Amino acid sequence: MKEDSIFRRYYKEEKFIDRKNSLNEEAIDVFIPIINTNELFEKNLLSIYREIPVNRLLIGNGGSTDDSREILKKFPRVEIIDQTKHITLGYCIAELISLVETHWFIYLHSDVYLPENWYDEMKKNRIKYDWFESDNRITTLINYDAGIKHTKRAYSGAQMGRKEAFKEIIPKIDDDYLYRNEDIIFKELIEQEGFKYGRVLEAYYYHQVMNKKGENEPEFERVDIKRFRDKQWEIDTYLKQVKGIIKYSLPKPYLIPEIIFPLKILMSYDTLNRDEFIKWVKNSNIAWLKYLDVKEKKQTLIQKIYYKLRAKLNPLINKFF
User: Fold this and answer.
1) CA 223 to chain centre
2) What is the pTM of this model?
3) Is the CB of residue 38 less than 8 Å from the CB of residue 71?
4) Beta strands 54-61 and 78-82: pairing type?
5) CATH numbers and ranges of domains, the chain
6) Interior CA angle at 150 toward 311 and 207, to 5°?
7) Segment 52-103, tens digit of pLDDT
């Protein structure tokens, strides 16, 4: 039998349970850096206090402008640390660790919900590790435009029809091949009979992407999400990612791909001064130098064109195909 829906648990009423006061065990500091939170923040905090004997909940406030502080007032032993002047998350985490008063501590994101027995399973590993993390599962609750306004294909989900238009169509339908293509077939048959198909873009529906009930229903393996980014945000983010890995890490095989792609993006934007960057690498961690390909090549122009058009490919495909 499949487990209870996490979405039901998210929105089901849950009483506050303070594990620190209900069990006789060592309390532990917990910290969460935040810059605004999602609509499940209060639910996530309920799960934290239920699962963990919280000694103090340290909140690193990076400049929240939402109702996070009001929500935190509902919970005990919360201390808010002003981190608005810090630039990077890593520095904020380092500061929060320095403020920990217990032998062990837990670092969480604000958008994390802890299921039952999470802490019990984690603390079993204290004899094996000094810094360890749990596995994770992604739950996706996002409302976004599907981007199909300019496609020629019809899409099932919420449609309205005239029965008379289907009078000659229904007898043609056999119980054979219409599955996940019925939107195309019905559109084509309607038009073949001389009736009109159309799309009403002034109305929309919410299409839910989630696992279905039933033993034989296949589950989603993953969902790919693209967040809107402006050019400067992307440049700043990738540059910090690259420099952070180079400065603080050795060039291990699993880390090398983590800087190759961001470097290509930075080079495509013509924002990377190669001479200055190489000089910085030599001064910061010269071990990385031989793994960096930041020299001009004949194919650089092609790469530039590719990466600049990359964001435009999907809309073009949807429009013409």
Assistant:
1) 9
2) 0.76
3) no
4) parallel
5) 6-127 (3.90.550.10), 147-210 (no CATH), 231-320 (no CATH)
6) 90
7) 999 999 999 999 999 999 999 999 999 999 999 999 999 999 999 999 999 9
